[in-house]
Amino acid sequence: MSKCVFQLKLGYKTTGLSMQRNIFIVILIFLIFFVISFLTNILGPIIPDIVKSFDLSIGLAGFLPFAFFVAYGVMSIPAGLMVEKFGEKAMLIGAFFLAFGGALLFALIPSFTIALSSLFLIGIGMAILQVVINPLLRVSGGEEKFAFYSVLAQLFFGAASFLSPLLYSYLVLNVHSRNGYSESSGFLIDILNGLVPENLKWVSLYWVFAAIALLMVVVIALVRFPKVELLEDERIDVGKSFAELAANKLVWAFFLGIFAYVGTEQGIANWISQFLQTYHEVDPATTGASVISYFWGLLTIGCFLGLILLKIFDSRKVLIFFTCGGIVSLLIALFGSKDMALIGFPMAGFFASVMYSVIFSLALNSVPKHHGTFSGILCAGIAGGAVVPLIVGGLGELVGLRFAMLFLLIPLGYILSIGLWAKPLVNNETVSSVRELFKMG
């Protein structure tokens, strides 16, 4: 899943050694952002292979993203409570160990039922990581540099989203290729040739994921993390604070906004390759993977453009403009020619780029207190990435994937409505001149 970096607004007060800004920890956090994105956004490219390898219907294939993203709904708030009890280091190690176990399980026993369990385990691990790393970045890099480091983290997140489909293409084209075990095939390919069945070359990805996750466990175990202490007003509280927020209809309206955004993003990304193969006979391992790579690449570029636009225009107007652009791009991709689809889907990623960060900031700026608990509720909305692709897959069985993807107009319409009804207590700060824009940090 990718998008502008999750801003889980948990505040920390530094103590003792944590006052020393640790650039090594910051770099490690950037690496974690990269790995999260690398593992999260690979489902779209491989769905056609999974469908073919396990002889699945479109409806059953929809359960794959469901198994992964439902973990966010399950773990977002519990992870916020657990990190306070067990600490950041233990939670990071546990998260990557879960990801390692899930990836290794599927690599060893590639089947549809195992894939569901594997993706759920990996999803839980990624949900824990999302909760831990943003507050840790604030502490390690310093609050005064948090905005800058968050932008850099977006770059790492987006780079991984762009590169993971390309790795998929490389592995599928080279594992068990004509080179066989020759010297020209390379050390990595030689190892994977011995591990992966010839008819399941794409499973090699999960061997790579398992190795990466295990390496991260080792690295994190060797690193000394700063000690942190949560500020009282910014703890996740499932008691009084949660009850107050749960009684506020605005809270659930913004929760649905996050739900709708992640559902839309994953509903597009997870079905791009299958759509292109079905309607335009595009090879998922080459052109299909490239289109998904461009989708995430343009989404990342859009994040940076969005940062500039939000300094010039009201965030609600930016949200409305980008959502309209996303709707037009999606319709062009679905009903245009092959060439139009190859452009339309990546452009949908570009226009989706600012939606998450704008919805999240509008939400936090619309509620005066309990931001830590509210952030936990909002992050649980990432479960939209489980539900919407599943609905699209189910509808695809009835009316075909093209018309099924029109369902995405419903969450997009809801996102558009947020730009019309949101009334934040504090509006985003804007500039009055280009000169003032470049003076701002």
UniProtKB/TrEMBL annotation:
Keyword Repeat found: no
Record carries keyword Cell inner membrane: no
Topology term for the membrane: Multi-pass membrane protein
Annotated localization: Cell inner membrane
InterPro entries per UniProt: MFS, MFS_dom, MFS_trans_sf, MFS_TsgA-like
Gene3D superfamilies given in the database record: MFS general substrate transporter like domains
Major facilitator superfamily (MFS) profile domain ranges (all copies): 25-431
Name of the protein in its database record: MFS transporter
